[in-house]
Amino acid sequence: MFPVELRGTRAQTLMWADEHQIEQAALKQLRNIAELPWVHGLRVMPDVHLGKGATVGSVIAMRDAVAPAAVGVDIGCGMESVKTGLTASDLPDDLRSLRARIEQAVPVGFQAHKEAVNVTKLDAGFANSHGKAALRANSWDRFWRAFGQLHPGVSSLESKAHKQIGSLGGGNHFIEICLDQDDAVWILLHSGSRNIGKELAERHMAIARALTHNQPLPDRDLAVFLSGTPEMDAYRRDLTWAQEYAARNRAVMLSLVCQAVRDEFGERPVRFEEPISCHHNYVAEEIIDDVPMLVTRKGAVRAGAGELALIPGSMGTRSYVVRGKGNPLSFQSASHGAGRRMSRSAAKRQYTVADLIAQTEGVESRKDAGVVDEIPAAYKDIDEVIAAQADLVDVVATLRQVLCVKG
Description:
Blueprint: E1 4-5, E2 12-15, H1 24-35, E3 39-49, E4 56-62, E5 65-66, E6 78-87, H2 96-105, H3 137-145, H4 158-164, E7 174-179, E8 184-191, H5 194-210, E9 225-226, H6 230-264, E10 276-279, E11 281-288, E12 291-298, E13 300-302, E14 308-311, E15 318-324, E16 333-335, H7 344-350, H8 353-359, H9 382-388, E17 393-406
Parallel strand pairs: 2-3
Antiparallel strand pairs: 1-2, 3-4, 4-12, 5-9, 6-8, 6-10, 7-8, 7-17, 11-12, 13-16, 14-15, 15-17
Helix pairs in contact: 2-6, 5-6
C-alpha cells in the first residue's frame, strides 16, 4: 500500500500516509519544500502534520544546502529508553511515590536545577560501558569549552544551559515508566536541547531569511544555508553542538530517573540494560541514491538496517521499540511518534479535564487543565501509524505506560 507518491512536485515525494488524510496546509507545505531547487527528494512519514516552515514527519535530502526549519527549533529532540530488571509484580499498587521521586529529581516545564548536575557523581548502573560514555567527566570538559564558539547572541545563557542539563521541558516531552508485552519494566523519556537549542535555532533562522538567495522563496520560513558559506559553517557548528547538548541532556535525565527508581526500591538492587537513544530533529551527512546529501529529519528517526529506535504514542496509549529495516525508499527513516491530529488550542477547546481523566485511566500522571492539550485523542492512532510503516521497521517491544511525568 505504501509508499504513495505526491503528484505534481519537482522533487520526488513519497508518502507513508494517504493524501486525503493529510491536512491541506501540510500538503501545501510539502509541495513548497519539494519545489526548493536544492531538494533531491522528500519522504513523508505516517505521523505527518503541519509545522513551522517544514512539515513535522518529513525527511529531506538536500544537495549542498540545509533549511533550519527542516530541523526545527528543538534541535536534537529525541528519545531515550532503558529496560530494567524489574517486572510488573515488583511495582507497588500506588505509583504516586515514584512519580514524586522522579519529579523531585528532574525539573519540568521552564524549570532548571538550582545548581548544575555534578555528572561525576552519576552512576546509572547501565549494563555496559557504552551507556556510561555520555556521563564521563572528561568529555564534558571538551563539550563546555565549545560554548564560547557559539553564536554571540547566546553568550549570556551559558549558566542557564548548565542548569538545564538533566531537565525535561514541557509540551509533548515526558518521562514514563512502562511495561512491555512480557511485563518487564522500562523507563522511557522524550526531550531535547531545552532553551539553548531554541535560542540558537531562532537566531540562525533569522539570518537565513535575510539572505539574498532566499528572497524569491514561496515561504521564507524555508530559507536555506548553502555549503561553502560562512553562514552555513556557523549554523552547522551550532547545530552539532545543540544536537550533542540534547543527547547529553537525555543521558543525564535517564541517570537521574534510574537513581529515583533505585531509591524507591531501597536496598533491593535494580539492574538496567543498555540504553536506546535516538534523535528525531536533526541533520546528518548520508549517502542517498549514491550521492552525498545533507539529510534533515524533523519528526522522523533513522531506521537503518538493524538500528533500534523509539516511537512513542501519547500519555494514555502505547509506545514502540523498533528495529529499522534500512528501506532506501524512505531514506532509511521512520516516524518519530503518533503525530498530532489536532492543534493544542483545538484540543483545549474540544476536551475537558474529565475527558483527560477517562483517557488516562490506569496511568499515574497529572490530570489537570495544564495538560489537556496532551490528551490522547489529540494524537493520531499509534497502532495505525506503526502499521503504515511495516516496510520500514520491525516491532521489538510494545510499551504501555503506567506512570507519566509531564511539564
